[in-house]
Amino acid sequence: MTNHNSSISDVLIIGGGAAGLSAAQMLGRSRRSVVVLDSGEPRNAPAQGVHGFLSRDGVRPAELLETGRAEARQYGVRTIQGEAVAAAGSVAEGFTVTAADGGVLRAKRLLITTGLVDELPGIPGLGERWGRDVLHCPFCHGWEVRDQGIGVLGNGPWSVHQALLFRQWSANITLFLNELVLPSAEELEQLAARGIKVVAGAVESLRVEQDRLRGVALAGGPEVAVDAVVAGAQVRARLDAFAGLGLKPEPHPMGIGDFLATDADGATAVPGVWAAGNVTDMRAQVLASAAAGAWAAVVINNHLMAEEMAADLSAYRQTLMLNDAGIRAGVSQ
């Protein structure tokens, strides 16, 4: 970490993705002192472009963040590259966040926008193609693989739903059961009705030729040609640094990973600490994450304003009392 000091900012944002930078911009425009601490490891870094973001469709993830940082800086926001490793404090005493290099940042409020980590099945070739022709979200990447041969890698009960969903983008869908999915009779009928092929057996690896995905190899069996693979990853909330505050991830009811629970405004169970983006809502795409960050910023600003008003009101009343006491003392003389 560089360019940090011991001063206390109004808000420290941990995570400089869409949610964090959107919040930073909103708070900067509210004339708050803001610091963004970012490890530089965005979840969508492997993706070729961001989709579903009005007026920014197809923008490279790195370009979107670069633009966001520049916009936030013009409102006085300070961005620091570094990884948070520990956090402590309270509203009464303020919060401290320690970075991996030993630097310490202090703030009156915290906003956690650290996002998620995708944990892919351990199939050779899967990780190397992630974000290219190994996908997970049809709304993010379905258009780019429309009408192609798409293989859905069985990885849990939600895989049948993924296969049925991707059928909207292509008539050539294959569901690989991968010895992990056992469709019900009703689901098998739905798959058949939609013309989705079902292949039994364990998936051994992906076949890649000349930097292009060509097929899915089954253990001891044939190879099935595909142009893209849908893989449902387990997702993990990046929360290790906040265990000292008592914040822990909770298992998602769908069984696809964990997340940080908050209320509708992004407030966590710890007073003075908010969260926004994928770390609390794994369904949120980039645009939704940015919107959640902006709203959390509004709520945080209002909490700070209420605290400042209470302090000013107390001081004002104290001044009135002293003035009144002085007047009475002068009269009695």
**Strand segment count:** 19
Shape: elongated
What distance separates the N and C termini? 63 Å
Task: Evaluate the radius of gyration.
Answer: 25 Å
Secondary structural class: alpha/beta
Please give the count of helices.
Answer: 7
- Poorly predicted spans: none
Biggest sheet record: 7 strands, mixed
Explain the overall architecture.
This protein is α/β, with parallel strands linked by helices and 333 residues long. 29% of the residues lie in helices and 26% in strands. The chain is built from seven helices and 19 strands. Strands 1, 2, 3, 4, 5, 6 and 19 form a seven-stranded mixed beta sheet that branches. The radius of gyration is 25 Å and the shape is elongated. The N and C termini lie far apart (63 Å).
Features:
5-stranded parallel beta sheet, 333 residues, alpha/beta, 7 helices, 19 strands, elongated, single chain
Structure described in brief:
The protein is of the alpha/beta class and 333 residues long. The protein contains seven helices and 19 strands.
Layout of helices and strands, plus pairs?
Elements: E1 8-14, H1 18-29, E2 34-38, H2 61-73, E3 78-81, E4 84-90, E5 94-99, E6 104-112, E7 116-119, H3 126-129, E8 134-135, H4 138-141, E9 150-153, H5 159-166, E10 173-176, H6 185-193, E11 197-199, E12 203-209, E13 212-218, E14 223-225, E15 228-231, E16 234-237, E17 250-251, E18 258-259, E19 273-275, H7 286-332
